[in-house]
Amino acid sequence: MDTLPFDVMDQNCPSRLVLQRIGDKWTPLIFQALKGGARRFGEIRQTVDGVSPKVLTQSLRALERDGLVDREVFAEVPVRVEYRLTSLGEGLLGPLDAVRIWAEAHAGQILAARDAYDDAEAATL
User: Fold this and answer.
1) Is-cis flag, bond preceding 28, omega within 30?
2) Is the pLDDT at 1 greater than 80, yes or no?
3) 56 pLDDT exceeds 90?
4) Which of 15, 45, 62, 64 could be stapled to 6 by a disulfide with Cβ–Cβ 3.0 to 4.6 Å?
5) Calpha distance 67→73 (Å, rounded)
6) What three-state secondary structure class fits 71?
C-alpha cells in the first residue's frame, strides 16, 4: 500500500485520515508527553493539561489503532499499563516538534494579529 500515489488534495484519499489524526487537538500534545519514553495514563494526563480521561482514552486508542502508539499491559496487582510511541510514531516527532517550536515562537504575533483584526472589525460596526 506504500506504493500507491496518495494525494491529500483528493477528498477520497485515505491520506486525509492521517492528516486528520495528526491535526487532532490532542495528538501533538500526547506525542510531546510520550517523546521521552513509556508513560502511564495518569502521567500522560498530568502532562497534557486540560484533557479529560474520556478524551485521552479515546485519543490513545485511536493512536494505537493507527499504529502510532503501543499499549503494554503488565500483569501486576494492580495492573500497570504503559503507552509508548511506536517506530512509526517516533517518525512524527520531528515534524510535530517543528510545529510546536514554531507555535511557541509565534504565538505572540498570532495573538497580536487577532487583536488587530478584531479591533478593525469592531471599528466597522
Assistant:
1) no
2) no
3) yes
4) 15
5) 16
6) strand
**DSSP structural state of residue 74:** E
Confidence (pLDDT) at 125: 83
Task: Quote the cell numbers at residue 106.
Answer: 509565534
Beta strand 80-85 pairing with 39-40:
antiparallel
Crossing angle for the helix pair 27-34 and 93-123, to the nearest 10 degrees: 140
Which set of grid coordinates corresponds to residue 96? 510535530
For the chain, the straight-line distance linking the first and the last C-alpha, in angstroms and rounded, comes to: 54
Alpha-carbon distance of 81 to 61, in angstroms, equals 13
Alpha helices (runs of H) in 1-125, residue ranges in sequence order: 15-22, 27-34, 41-47, 53-65, 87-90, 93-123
